[in-house]
Amino acid sequence: MHAETDDSLMRRALELKPRLVAIRRDIHRHPEIGYDVHRTAAIAATFMKKLGMDLRLGVGVSGVVGLLRGNSP
After folding, report:
1. Among the listed residues 63, 60, 56, 20, the one whose alpha carbon sits nearest the alpha carbon of residue 40
2. Distance CA 48, CA 66 (A)
3. Distance between CA 25 and CA 19 in Å, rounded?
4. What is the DSSP string of 34-57?
5. Model confidence, pTM
6. Rounded CA gap, 63 and 32, in Å?
7. Distances (CA, A) of 31 to 6, 24, 37, 61, 62
8. Which of 1, 22, 47, 51 has the smallest count of CB within 10 Å of its CB?
9. What is the spatial distance between Cα 39 and Cα 51, in angstroms, rounded to a whole number?
10. pLDDT for 6-36, tens place per residue?
11. What is the largest CA-CA distance in the chain?
């Protein structure tokens, strides 16, 4: 990886940090039990979709899988 790519990735991660912290705190305020995590899955899916990921919903019971595509194979 190049230094400019590392810097860009770090900047983007720092931009996302406040939102990720807020999501984590929200999830902990509304705990779900076992594999019945539909609210948490919806929050994760919404965030991942905003990042441009292709999603597969309902994996297992209530899982979400996101495919993050890059510029390299």
Report:
1. 63
2. 7
3. 10
4. TT--HHHHHHHHHHHHHTT-EEEE
5. 0.74
6. 13
7. 35, 11, 8, 16, 14
8. 1
9. 19
10. 888 899 899 999 999 999 999 999 999 888 8
11. 43
